[in-house]
Amino acid sequence: MTASLFAKQSNAMVWSPYLARASGSCALSGKHINLGDSVYRPRTR
Predict the structure, then answer these.
(1) Domain total for the chain?
(2) Residues 3 and 28 sit within 8 Å (Cβ to Cβ)
(3) Residues 32, 25: contact at Cβ < 8 Å?
(4) Cβ contacts of residue 13 below 8 Å, gap of 6+?
(5) Which of 7, 25, 37, 41 lies in the 20 to 30 Å Cα band around 19?
(6) 35 and 22 in contact (C-beta within 8 Å)?
(7) Strand (E) positions, 1-45?
(8) What angle do CA 2, 19, 9 make, to 5 degrees?
(9) Which InterPro entries match (predicted)?
(10) Enclosing domain of residue 27
(11) Going by C-beta distance under 8 Å and a sequence separation of 6 or more, which residues neighbour residue 28?
(12) Cβ–Cβ under 8 Å, residues 29 and 23
């Protein structure tokens, strides 16, 4: 499953599912993320 966020530019940022490689917090919601949690992150080209 992937998700696309479209901005006013003609390109899209594609997000893909991953497992968290470290504990931290979500940049969008601030929710705590544990090591191994399912998360989405931008796909790099």
Answers:
(1) 1
(2) no
(3) yes
(4) 4, 5, 7, 42
(5) 7
(6) yes
(7) 3-6, 12-19, 24-25, 32-33, 38-42
(8) 35
(9) DUF3331
(10) 3-42
(11) none
(12) no
Between CA 11 and CA 27 the distance in angstroms is: 21
Per-residue model confidence as pLDDT tens digits over 1-45: 555 555 555 567 788 999 999 999 988 889 999 999 999 988 876
What tokens does 35 get?
Answer: 């090591």
* Cross-strand bridge partners of residue 6: 12
Q: Please name the residues in contact with 37: beta carbons below 8 A apart, sequence gap of 6 or more.
A: 19, 20
- Residue 10 has a pLDDT of 55
C-alpha distances in angstroms, 39 versus 10, 11, 12, 26?
Answer: 26, 22, 19, 9
